């Protein structure tokens, strides 16, 4: 089993695409305000139990480690026989952390609880057999996951993770630049064509002093944000066939090219890749006026010591696909926590992830738990930064009743991370090799067919 696990994980490592450090992340509207409840047993029933030590692997940075430790301390007070060790493999970098975690697990390292940055990573490990199914624990605690969490990763009909954070995408805009261009804050009826026009008007200057109207990062989400918000899967059709022939890919590819080549309102992809640019510094240093992103970016906005800036960020909804498209559709990413299949303490590990996903007081991001009070979390997290984050536009955007995603976790395969890599490579061919959108789509369809056949063996 250990040899098989090593082979599967090595394959996952070789095909791993450059993923978000948090989550298209994604991430359904948060509407609940019910009191937080868990299926955890009271602490009194734990007092006579044998001591258990859990190893919890994350990529927490220094700030997150402090908040996470508060959550762990509260859990340990409730479960005095369980001690949790928070092991941050590569602080602040989920991609490198997951690679290290794969190596550790393939070598037989004892692991109990793992955090993954998006659903593709989670499903790939579940299919590789390194995660334990949660169905038994859900049934024992009378937990109905579809009623508890926004997105529930499943493989072959079994649940393998609980949603820890929820990250609905929106557009962060430099308010100073917006006022300077005499533009109003966009509403739910704006489109990607409108986004292009805004980017033109927000662009200013030349050379090293130029401020671009918008910034697109290298992640797969930015190759076609419509696919991640409007489609049930950004890679697949409902019958699990490759879906890169969807018309939205040609539209968004051509939009990106026009903004870069014709309008010169976004930094060239070649520069972004060649200089290994950071979306954080490009926006907060005033090099780009708009950034499609999610709540994970707001921690960076608040960190004025590391990213000094004086402008206020206002928040607009993610643009809709067209003037006839449904308003409020967005990409909802998030992070997930799972129990390792080789854990010797699966019940205790489940108790911990259940507590961690339902507890709200020490959170640094929005919850993936439907019964949380999201507005209270936003007030606590961002209310103190009202001078640089417009909390009103944030709340009216992410809590609007129209906010939802069309993403369906049932339309997924274990090799989704490989398909994301195909999307990223196909877009690079389109932008850097000057192919047509149709040629890029054909290449992506052909490559996806090969991957599907390889995984069917």
UniProtKB/TrEMBL annotation:
Organism field: Paenibacillus anseongense
Any single Pfam family the record assigns to this protein: SBP_bac_1
SUPFAM superfamilies referenced in this protein's UniProt entry, alphabetically: Periplasmic binding protein-like II (SSF53850)
KW Signal (keyword) present: yes
Coiled coil: none
Gene3D superfamilies for this protein: Periplasmic binding protein-like II (3.40.190.10)
Keyword field: Signal
Protein name (record): Extracellular solute-binding protein
Signal peptide: 1-21
């Amino acid at each position: 089993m250990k040899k098989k696990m090593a082979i599967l994980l090595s394959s996952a490592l070789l095909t791993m695409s450059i993923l978000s450090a948090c989550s298209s992340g994604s991430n359904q509207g948060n509407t609940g305000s019910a009191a937080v409840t868990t299926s955890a047993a009271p602490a009194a029933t734990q007092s006579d139990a044998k001591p258990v030590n859990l190893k919890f692997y994350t990529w927490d940075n220094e700030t997150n480690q402090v908040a996470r430790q508060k959550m762990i301390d509260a859990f340990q007070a409730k479960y005095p026989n369980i001690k949790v060790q928070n092991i941050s493999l590569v602080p602040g970098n989920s991609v490198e952390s997951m690679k290290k975690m794969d190596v550790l697990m393939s070598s037989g390292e004892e692991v109990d609880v793992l955090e993954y940055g998006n659903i593709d990573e989670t499903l790939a490990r579940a299919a590789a057999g390194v995660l334990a199914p949660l169905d038994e624990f859900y049934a024992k605690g009378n937990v109905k996951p579809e009623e508890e969490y926004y997105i529930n990763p499943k493989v072959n009909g079994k649940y393998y993770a609980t949603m820890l954070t929820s990250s609905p995408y929106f557009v962060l805009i430099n308010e100073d630049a917006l006022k300077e261009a005499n533009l109003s804050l966009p509403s739910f009826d704006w489109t990607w064509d409108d986004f292009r026009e805004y980017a033109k008007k927000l662009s200013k200057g030349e050379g090293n002093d130029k401020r671009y109207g918008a910034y697109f990062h290298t992640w797969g989400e930015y190759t076609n944000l419509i696919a991640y918000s409007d489609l049930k899967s950004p890679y697949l059709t409902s019958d699990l066939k490759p879906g890169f022939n969807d018309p939205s890919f040609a539209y968004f590819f051509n939009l990106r090219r026009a903004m870069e080549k014709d309008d010169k309102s976004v930094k060239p992809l070649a520069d972004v890749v060649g200089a290994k640019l950071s979306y954080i510094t490009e926006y907060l240093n005033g090099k780009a006026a708009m950034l499609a992103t999610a709540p994970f970016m707001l921690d960076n906005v608040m960190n004025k010591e590391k990213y000094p800036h004086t402008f206020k960020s206002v928040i607009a909804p993610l643009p809709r696909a067209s003037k006839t498209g449904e308003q409020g559709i967005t990409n909802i990413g998030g992070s997930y926590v799972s129990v390792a299949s080789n854990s010797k303490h699966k019940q205790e590990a489940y108790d911990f992830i259940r507590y961690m996903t339902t507890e709200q007081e020490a959170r640094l991001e929005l919850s993936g738990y439907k019964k949380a009070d999201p507005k209270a979390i936003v007030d606590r997290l961002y209310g103190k930064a009202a001078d640089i984050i417009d909390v009103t536009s944030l709340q009216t955007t992410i809590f609007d009743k129209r906010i939802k995603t069309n993403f369906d976790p049932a339309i997924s395969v274990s090799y989704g991370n490989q398909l994301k890599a195909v999307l990223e490579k196909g877009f690079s061919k389109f932008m850097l090799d000057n192919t047509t959108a149709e040629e890029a789509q054909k290449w992506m369809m052909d490559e996806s067919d090969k991957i599907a056949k390889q995984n069917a063996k």
